[in-house]
């Protein structure tokens, strides 16, 4: 059934190639942990089989097949270049099995660092949303204060949040509080500006429709202006989220004792590039997971748009 | 005492340091339960007049009395249907209607609001579409929801600003008959007072008790004409009568006699 799809045939073929090359003799002096790679490949293949029966749309299945093809292709090339032919410098390019092994071995350490990084981001981010959205709604609705606030937010929004760090360190006692502060600033200005521009651009006819229903001020603000500005607010939220990750991981590499940026920097300082690569992969996974959650929320709240 | 009394209404706009008069000394009155159409070419100020009735605009001079009281801003005594954007796109059809009821009739409970909303959606033939968002409905269906909301909030006065102006001809006919049916009712309830702005003469004749014809530059009342046809009206029967043809021709000649004096640069819209 699944073999009907041309692209899936390629996926299965690559899977077999990936497994078979594991049985070539190793040229690497160190242990390659090939069994971890084999288990990962088997897991991926199982997911592929399940997905191919669940995904109904041809486009979706093709996309999925392409992604798995890429992963298998990368792993085959990586295995050949490291464990099997040893053409890359082993200390900088560990074999893929070793990376999977390290990821599992460091499981609890990684989890603690994810918690630390994501915790800081959520704290700064949510704090910024709680303040920026109502303030933007209020100032955007007020014609006179609104135009002044637009200029103020343009000025502060233009300052790259990273340059607040030295001042933040002087102001605040811990690395954590400085990080929260900087992420707060990085999120606050785009969300504030997005909310204000959303409010200022609400169609006058929509406001008239609400006015003729005699809505009170609070209803006008939260049942009419807020949903009408929601798309613009999300643009600001998206921008804030992207910048927050860049900032936090950078900051963690400079001065932190925990977090994903710290994990990467710390182990690369010790020349442990297996863990450095593990850190990179984990950062990618975490950001994709958070973006996915964010996009799902956005999609749900804007489901009334076509 | 008339339901709505419009006294010496004048509206001046200033745009780019040039002021122009949208309405000048407009006077007429509307009785309770009367269906009045305001008709005229573009720029005659008919929509401006309605926006003042809605309470969205304020006049430069003159006043509007409802039940003898001058109006200040919007009020819970008036329901409004616009040509566009009457509905809130983030609310389902049901929610739109229920939201309208909530704003105007504070004492109605939540479950009662939704019951009334469903009742009125059924009246406009959309009981199957209550959980759809406006973006999922056609233009005609959206206007049905807007009408359902305006009727559900149950105000004495209904203000309609070219509500069918953007609807295709076939659906416009259907919507006109639906509005006529709902407004005429079954005789057990009091009819609402309706002010209906349009530029469609046939629409005005079919629906109205009285037609107020306006003329542009500055906007003012040109004629007030009683529509001499009995209710309930049936379009297909009505349009076949000689009286209808004669009446329509009289109106058209008035309409053109007004326009003909201005042809040459003026926009002419029928």
Core attributes:
A: 306 residues, mainly alpha, 12 helices, flat, B: alpha/beta, Rossmann fold, globular
Protein topology:
The complex is a heterodimer of chains A (306) and B (270).
Chain A: H1 6-21, H2 34-54, H3 58-84, H4 96-105, H5 107-141, H6 143-158, H7 165-171, H8 175-200, H9 204-211, H10 217-255, H11 260-269, H12 273-301
Helix pairs in contact in A: 1-2, 1-3, 2-3, 2-4, 4-12, 5-6, 5-8, 5-10, 5-11, 6-8, 7-8, 8-10, 9-10, 10-11, 10-12, 11-12
Chain B: E1 4-15, E2 18-30, E3 35-39, H1 46-54, E4 61-66, E5 69-70, E6 78-81, H2 93-104, H3 110-123, H4 139-152, E7 157-161, H5 169-184, E8 193-198, H6 201-207, E9 210-215, E10 220-226, H7 235-238, H8 242-260
Parallel strand pairs in B: 3-8, 3-9, 6-7, 7-8
Antiparallel strand pairs in B: 1-2, 1-4, 4-5, 9-10
Helix pairs in contact in B: 2-3, 2-4, 3-4
Description:
The complex is a heterodimer of chains A (306) and B (270). Chain A has 306 residues and is mainly α. Chain A folds into two domains: 103 residues, no CATH class; 195 residues, MetI-like fold (Orthogonal Bundle). Chain A is built from twelve helices and no strands. In chain A, helix 1 runs antiparallel to helix 2, helix 2 runs antiparallel to helix 3 and helix 11 packs antiparallel against helix 12. By secondary structure, chain B is α/β, with parallel strands linked by helices. Chain B has a domain of 160 residues: P-loop containing nucleotide triphosphate hydrolases (Rossmann fold, 3-Layer(aba) Sandwich), CATH 3.40.50. Chain B has eight helices and ten strands. In chain B, the strands form two sheets. Chain B has a six-stranded mixed β-sheet with strand order 6-7-8-3-9-10, sandwiched between helices. In chain B, strands 2-1-4-5 form a four-stranded antiparallel β-sheet, with helices on one face. In chain B, a hairpin with a 2-residue loop joins strand 1 and strand 2. The C terminus of chain B is likely disordered. At the A-B interface, helix 9 and helix 10 of A face strand 6 and helix 2 of B.
């Amino acid at each position: 059934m699944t073999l009907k799809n041309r692209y899936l045939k390629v996926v299965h073929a690559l899977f077999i190639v990936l497994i078979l090359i594991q049985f070539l003799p190793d040229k690497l002096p160190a242990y390659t942990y090939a069994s971890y790679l084999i288990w990962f490949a088997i897991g991926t293949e199982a997911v592929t089989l399940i997905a191919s029966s669940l995904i109904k749309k041809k486009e979706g299945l093709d996309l999925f097949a392409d992604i798995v093809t890429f992963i298998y292709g990368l792993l085959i090339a990586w295995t050949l270049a490291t464990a099997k032919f040893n053409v890359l410098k082993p200390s900088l390019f560990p074999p893929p099995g070793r990376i999977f092994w390290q990821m599992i071995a460091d499981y609890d350490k990684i989890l603690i660092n994810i918690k630390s990084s994501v915790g800081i981001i959520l704290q700064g981010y949510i704090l910024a949303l709680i303040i920026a959205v109502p303030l933007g709604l209020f100032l955007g609705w007020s014609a006179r204060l609104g135009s002044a606030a637009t200029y103020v937010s343009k000025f502060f929004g233009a300052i790259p949040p990273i340059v607040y760090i030295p001042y933040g360190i002087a102001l605040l006692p811990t690395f954590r509080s400085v990080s929260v502060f900087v992420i707060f600033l990085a999120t606050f200005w785009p969300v504030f500006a997005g909310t204000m521009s959303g409010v200022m651009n609400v169609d006058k006819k929509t406001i008239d429709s609400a006015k003729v229903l005699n809505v009170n001020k609070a209803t006008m603000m939260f049942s009419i202006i807020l949903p009408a500005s929601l798309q613009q607010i999300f643009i600001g939220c998206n921008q804030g989220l992207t910048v927050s990750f860049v900032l936090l991981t950078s900051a963690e590499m400079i001065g932190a004792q925990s977090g994903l940026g710290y994990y990467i920097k710390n182990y690369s300082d010790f020349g442990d590039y297996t863990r450095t690569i593990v850190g990179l992969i984990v950062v990618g996974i975490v950001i994709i997971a958070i973006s996915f959650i964010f996009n799902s929320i956005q999609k749900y709240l804007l489901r009334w748009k076509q | 005492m008339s339901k709505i009394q419009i006294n010496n209404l004048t509206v001046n706009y200033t745009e780019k340091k040039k002021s122009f008069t949208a309405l000048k000394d407009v006077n007429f009155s509307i009785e309770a339960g009367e269906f009045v159409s305001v008709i005229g070419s573009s720029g005659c100020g008919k929509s401006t007049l309605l926006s003042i009735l809605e309470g969205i605009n304020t006049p430069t001079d003159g006043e509007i009395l409802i039940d003898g009281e001058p109006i200040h801003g919007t009020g819970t005594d008036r329901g409004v249907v616009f040509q566009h954007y009457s509905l809130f796109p983030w609310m389902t059809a049901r929610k739109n209607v229920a939201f309208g009821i909530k704003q105007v009739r504070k004492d109605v409970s939540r479950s009662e609001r939704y019951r009334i909303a469903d009742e009125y959606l059924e009246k406009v033939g959309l009981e199957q579409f209550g959980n759809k968002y406006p973006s999922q409905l056609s233009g005609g269906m959206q206007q049905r929801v807007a009408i359902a909301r305006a009727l559900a909030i149950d105000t004495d006065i209904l203000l309609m600003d070219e509500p069918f102006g953007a609807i295709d001809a076939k659906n416009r006919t259907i919507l006109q008959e639906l509005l006529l049916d709902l407004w005429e009712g079954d005789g057990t309830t009091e009819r609402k007072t309706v002010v209906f702005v349009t530029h469609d003469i046939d629409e005005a004749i079919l629906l109205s008790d009285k037609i107020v014809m306006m003329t542009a530059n500055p906007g003012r009342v040109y004629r007030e004409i009683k529509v001499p046809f009995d209710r309930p009206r049936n379009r297909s029967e009505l349009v076949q009568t000689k009286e209808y043809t004669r009446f329509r021709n009289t109106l058209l000649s008035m309409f053109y006699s007004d326009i003909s004096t201005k042809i040459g640069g003026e926009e002419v819209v029928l």
